[in-house]
């Protein structure tokens, strides 16, 4: 049974483990109540599990941040600040700050004494890879599938994060053959 102080802290939000899950947080400890099991069960999150779930969650959004930094870097001549990201992505400053902190900790970017964001070699490589995928997939969806620019952009933005390297390079080679008139 759950004590009343924990019940007061219940915040309903999907946890990704099951359709009937509830997140419980009290005194800095997180729990998941899985209600769609035969017998409702409580699981305590360890910091390792919580960090792993946050890392998985950051994968796509982190790639989007890196791609946006790369684009803004070209557009603003290397003078990208957190506020520029917030405006471009239409996110709050605290959300941007958290993401920047995670990307910096993981070695994808640095921040100079003036507050400008710079991609590291690893960050630039990752950003360029995602940007290339975005460009190729957008062209493929527009030219092969015949969808509008908006739909091609939006679909490419979602697919670029989940497509395997093998499939991506196969599609890229196919598109290059079409564009060169070999197919």
Pick out its properties.
183 residues, alpha+beta, 4-stranded antiparallel beta sheet, two-stranded antiparallel ribbon, 6 strands, 57% helix, disordered N terminus
Brief sketch in words of this structure:
This protein has 183 residues and is of the alpha+beta class. Helix content is 57%, strand content 13%.
In angstroms, what is the radius of gyration?
Answer: 21 Å
Strand order of the largest sheet: 1-2-3-4
Largest sheet: 4 strands, antiparallel
H/E series: HEEEEHHHEEHHH
Average pLDDT figure: 77
What is the share of helical residues?
55-70%
N-end to C-end Cα span: 66 Å
The quaternary structure here is single chain
- In total, the number of strands is 6
- Count of individual helical segments: 7
Shape: elongated
Structural class: alpha+beta
Extract low-pLDDT stretches.
1-21, 25-29, 43-58
In terms of DSSP E residues, the strand content is 5-15%
Structural description of this entry:
- By secondary structure, the chain is α+β, with helices and mostly antiparallel strands.
- 57% of the residues lie in helices and 13% in strands.
- It has helices at residues 4-8, 47-75, 82-89, 93-105, 121-143, 149-159, 165-180, and strands at 10-11, 21-26, 29-34, 41-44, 109-111, 117-119.
- Strands 1-2-3-4 form a 4-stranded antiparallel beta sheet. The protein has a two-stranded antiparallel ribbon with strand order 5-6.
- 17% of the residues are buried.
